[in-house]
Write a structure and sequence with these properties.
By secondary structure, this protein is mainly alpha-helical. The protein is 75% helix and 1% strand. It has a two-stranded antiparallel ribbon.
């Protein structure tokens, strides 16, 4: 297990180096950092002097090494929009996105698990057929359309929930960075529709995945042996079958958590949710290259970290799985 953890950590570092190389190449070839700093009213000679001071005439590898060192120290450059360090801007917007993804993940877990298991255990039940019909429909509807439908129904027509913004927030750690809506009633109300909309992307997928995996496990020899031993149905379903159903589900869930960070762009745009996705679109519209690259590196780091943790957790769920690659 230790060898596996070390190998996965090395792989994560290599992936991050590749991503940083791609990000640096984009930043180096798009935009004009000198113009961003001093505008266009400078002579070519002055531009050459500034480029020399900034090291823009250095060889590619030297510039890339300097970029990596700066990133390791939290220096991603300065945002042209906010006139602040890019990492500071991202950290200000990150809590909104994290709370949105966390809320959506909890909805997916607490709804997909019981519905998927029930649909596997009672495949011919009318409710199971309704679940599968809902999941098929849910997979087919894009998230922005789901969000608009929810706004029209619950905000415009019924007036039950707010349609945009984060509502009332509180500074969770009194540091100015984590403004949370989880501790206020108004903040929780504003969180409901965006979370449900974001969860609607993955929820049907997980219901179908859990159902298919559970049905496959129920047909295995050790489950038949458990029935032959006369074990209680609840023990067979929840202890023997369900535990092995979780193996592929946990792996896919780890991948999808990272993907949900990307999908928040659409959700945050529809609900005017001031998170990282909303910030990313604003950076694109105003060509803030430094902020775009910082976003790319930070989101990629989250994605790699989540997948590494999930891979390690996979081994703890079932130690008999040969995750080390050795016999």
């Amino acid at each position: 297990m230790f060898a596996f953890i070390v190998r996965r950590t090395i792989q994560a570092v290599m992936v991050m180096l590749i991503i940083s190389l791609i990000g640096f190449s984009i930043k180096r070839n798009i935009g004009d950092p000198i113009r961003d700093l001093v505008g266009e009213r400078v002579t070519p000679e002055e531009r050459a002097v500034i480029a020399d001071k900034l090291g823009l005439n250095d060889p590619f590898f030297k510039q890339y090494t300097r970029f990596v060192k700066n990133v390791l120290h939290g220096d991603f450059g300065t945002s042209l929009i906010y006139r602040k360090p890019c990492l500071e801007v991202i950290l200000k917007h990150a809590p909104a996105t994290i709370e949105l993804v966390l809320g959506a993940a909890l909805i997916i877990i607490f709804i997909s698990l019981p519905l998927g298991v029930f649909a596997a255990l009672k495949p011919k039940h009318l409710f199971s057929k309704c679940i599968m019909g809902f999941s098929t429909l849910g997979v087919s509807i894009p998230v922005f359309l789901t969000a608009i439908m929810f706004i029209y129904l619950f905000s415009v027509t019924l007036g039950w929930l707010p349609s945009y913004g984060r509502g009332e927030t509180v500074d969770l750690f009194n540091n100015g960075y984590w403004n949370s809506g989880l501790l206020t009633i108004d903040g929780l109300k504003h969180l409901v529709l965006p979370c449900v909309s974001l969860a609607s992307i993955m929820l049907p997928l997980y219901i179908r995945l859990i159902r298919s995996e559970m049905m496959e496990v129920l047909e295995t020899e050790y489950i038949k042996y458990a029935w032959a031993k006369g074990l209680a149905p609840t023990r067979i379903w929840l202890v023997h079958a369900f535990k092995n159903t979780l193996l592929p589900v946990v792996t896919v869930f780890g991948l999808q958590i990272g993907i949900m960070f990307a999908f928040t762009i659409l959700t945050e745009t529809v609900f005017q949710w001031q998170g990282m996705g909303f910030m990313f679109l604003e950076a694109i519209q105003r060509a803030d290259i430094s902020l775009l690259i910082a976003y790319l590196v930070v989101v990629a780091s989250v994605f790699v970290l989540v997948n590494t943790v999930v891979d390690i957790f996979y081994g703890f769920i079932n130690p008999t799985v040969r995750i080390s690659g050795t016999k």
